[in-house]
Design a protein that fits this description.
The chain is an alpha/beta fold. It has 2 domains: 3-320, Alpha-Beta Barrel (TIM Barrel); 323-352, no CATH class. 42% of the residues lie in helices and 14% in strands. The chain is globular.
């Protein structure tokens, strides 16, 4: 297992993290495949044995069930993990039971601490953007939690680049706790984060934590052209996240993954995860599974070294096209591009 600095912080986290959206009960967990306490304990055991030190959850997973189960499982070994959770989504039916207000965030954090059976959260993340609550209020609430010792570091999730920049500007002007991470969706199927989010993370020294790296299981190798879709998959059950725009493109990507996986005598999922570990600004890839076998396969991605040819083939097959203003910059600004700029534009400069 490799360990990486999380953004501009001094915190080091494993390049693979354990996701726990399926821990506990509730509608969301059921759609993801519910994991009870005994199964969760076994998954945490496997993750720790593999060298994982980052575990991610949220108060919205299983209506708090995920945090409750994780709190049970981590008793006696809380100090072995960097514990991350999130808040923002509804935790009740009241008008103030959602969002990023000081009222909601402080109450949500205290509830998470009780469910997790701990006195502090290592990484507390805003689960989604809130365009109606002033950022000054949101960030002062997070800073209050840090100064009170309830939270060690703060981050965000699903923020666009401009939203991250605005938050960093507000935090910097008042010397409040600064985001160290942004948890986002990125996969071989959907690389839109590379337009804006990845360059922002590189430029501002934020670590990226990647959720749904296998596109909700679509890149696991089970979805193949001409074959029936697995009945137990999230997408077959009507779960729409993440969306699939071009089914034929999905099949093409999976076929390529299968070819590369066969060369390494591994599964397609391991290749897709290993590719993500190599991507710019990516600090940790969050993996989850319904079974021990799936988890073992996913955790093994940390030790898979893809060849230069493997990476080039995957890049050519999935590279996002340059949209404006990036195609313009590739023509007229290529003599003055930064590392952040080149994370998107660089591969296009070498096209024939």
């Amino acid at each position: 297992m490799c360990y990486r600095q999380l953004g501009a912080s001094g915190l080091r986290v494993s390049c693979l993290a354990l996701g726990t959206a399926s821990f506990g009960a509730g509608d969301r967990a059921t759609k993801s495949g519910a994991v009870d306490v005994s199964d969760a304990r076994r998954q945490v055991d496997m993750a720790l044995e593999a060298g994982v030190n980052l575990i991610d959850t949220a108060d919205a997973y299983g209506a708090g069930g995920s945090e409750t189960v994780l709190g049970h499982v981590l008793q006696g070994r809380r100090d072995r993990v960097t514990l991350a959770t999130k808040a923002r989504f509804p935790t009740g039916t009241g008008p103030n039971d959602a969002g990023s207000s000081r009222h909601h965030l402080v109450r949500a954090c205290e509830a998470s601490l009780r469910r997790l059976r701990t006195d502090h959260i290592d990484l507390y993340q805003l689960h989604e953007w809130d365009g109606q609550t002033p950022l000054e209020e949101t960030l002062s609430a997070l800073d209050l939690l840090v100064r009170g010792g309830k939270v060690r570091y703060v981050g965000c999730s699903n923020f666009a680049g401009w939203q991250v920049m605005k938050a960093l500007g507000v935090a910097g002007s008042d010397r409040r706790a600064r985001f160290v991470s942004n948890q986002v969706y990125l996969s071989l199927l959907e690389r839109s984060a590379e337009y804006d989010i990845v360059p922002t993370a590189l430029d501002q020294r934020l670590g990226l934590l990647i959720w749904s790296p296998l596109a909700g299981g679509l890149l696991s190798g089970k979805f193949r052209r001409g074959r029936p879709e697995p009945e137990d998959s999230r997408h077959s059950g009507g779960w729409p996240e993440p969306p699939v725009g071009d089914r034929e493109r999905l099949y093409d990507i999976v076929e390529l993954l299968a070819e590369i996986a066969a060369d390494h005598h591994v599964g397609a999922a391991r290749v897709a995860l290993a590719w993500l570990v190599t991507r710019p600004a990516v600090t940790s890839v969050i993996v989850a599974a319904r079974s021990d076998a799936q988890l073992a396969e996913n955790l093994a991605a940390a030790s898979l070294a893809l060849t230069k040819d493997d990476l080039e083939r995957l890049e050519r097959a999935t590279r996002p096209p340059l949209i404006y203003p990036y195609w313009h910059q590739s023509w007229y600004a290529k003599d003055r591009l930064s590392e952040a700029d080149l994370s998107l534009i660089g591969p296009h400069l070498h096209e024939p």
